[in-house]
Amino acid sequence: MISIKPTQHLTGVTVSGDVHDFQELYDALHDIVGEESEYPHYDAVRIRVLGVCYDIRHAIMGNRGAKHVPNGLDRDGMKYLSITGSEMNIYLTFEVLLPEMIFVSYALNDFIHLYERNNKTHAWNATSMAVRKFQSTFATCLEETLPEKKFAQLKKYFMTSNRWDLTKYEGYMTQYVDTLNIKFIHMDQEKREKNISIFAKRLAEKDHRYMQVFHEIHDIARENGVHPDEIRPIEQYPDDYEW
Predict the structure, then answer these.
(1) Element (H, E) at 111
(2) Residue 5 forms beta bridges with which residues?
(3) Entry's Pfam families (predicted)?
(4) Do the Cβ atoms of 215 and 173 come closer than 8 Å?
(5) Which residues are CB-neighbours of 188 under 8 A, at least 6 positions away?
(6) Rounded to whole angstroms, how far apart are CA atoms 171 and 227?
């Protein structure tokens, strides 16, 4: 079962699960975003979801983290079942920055809509349900982390990004996500907690801050004769930071 918990300094979240959980999520995310250029106006957004897939794959390969968790069987239980073994399971782990996780969770609504429409499948299909479970687990993490009033403010943005008549993130300038990620990293823990719902709002609404980045990216791309997706933010991610 996938678990998502805040990191120690609230810089991001730790996603954990056994190898089967991670393989199911990896396959579902890959299926939901489609093949390269299948949704050409979502190429940059697709890359952000595949970034999570990259971490899942490396976690499965043993290149991220791991922890022991109780498996629910103690010695008496194993004796009753006439089996022997460990009382602990190994869960694999990886981290995702909080603004990144919020954005990916929002964008997955668009991909679920596109997947179900293009594949003429039903809302209970296994792929959509695996992705929805991932979103739900992240929402539970936020609910357990934030004060009640802060989470109440944030919930409406989950609802806004879940309108089935809209594809909110078509053509989205994902450089804006990088801008918010970098800004979030440079905050202290107290400020991060206060800003989670604010960043969630900014990622759900294309406000003047997003539009400024949008126009700047398009202007630079036009001047250099390249696609806007090829333009990277001027500010760089720090080489190292505390999770």
Answers:
(1) helix 98-118
(2) 14
(3) DUF6904
(4) no
(5) none
(6) 12
Q: Which helix (H) or strand (E) holds 105?
A: helix 98-118
Backbone angles phi, psi at 90, to 5 degrees: -100, 120
Query: Distance (Å, rounded) from C-alpha 169 to C-alpha 42?
Result: 7
Complete DSSP assignment for 2-43: -EEEE-TTSSEEEEEE-HHHHHHHHHHHHHHH-STTTSGGGH
CB 162 within 8 A of CB 31: no
Residues facing residue 199 across a β-bridge: none
Q: DSSP code of 233?
A: P
Minimum mean pLDDT range among 30-44, 48-62, 164-178, 229-243: 164-178
Q: Tokens 């993130």 sit at which residue?
A: 169
Rounded CA separation 102/155 (Å): 12
Over the stretch 140-172, which tens digit does the pLDDT of each residue have?
999 999 989 889 888 877 764 445 445 689 999
End-to-end CA distance of the chain: 23
* Residue pLDDT, tens place only, 101-139: 999 999 999 999 999 989 888 888 999 999 999 999 999
**pLDDT recorded at residue 161:** 46
SS3 content of the chain, % helix, strand, coil (to 5): 60, 10, 30
Sign of torsion, CA 72 74 80 83?
positive
Please list, in sequence order, all residues whose beta carbon lies within 8 angstroms of the beta carbon of residue 240, skipping any fewer than 6 positions away. none
